[in-house]
């Protein structure tokens, strides 16, 4: 059976701060492979949202040995802004899926964004995992909505969605 990836999006600390008149949220996108991916190039985990300002971000991945004979290890992922600089609508992280002559592969990882906006109480967010399956541009795009688009050689193989309104 081919390996698959599970992608989840959790939104926590979604609240209105009356002292600043700003709505704030923390978006936590995570992925985990069920086995060794067949294509081991460069992948992207991206999140889009409905026009909030980024105030914090972090991303990282855990590598696992293909035979399980060596310990897992962690590496920070590289921040990747959406094409066109639309960072008020999203952001992402990229990383190499394999390391050390393909003996280690990306087992799991995350992208976390802290966002905020004044005078607004509605949040929509969407996350997508872009898996490279051939020569592909290292980019993704978001539109003024909740959407992530990858180019033709990068396939969306997992995603999740969140919507809420602060009372």
Automatic annotation (TrEMBL):
Descriptive protein name: Uncharacterized protein
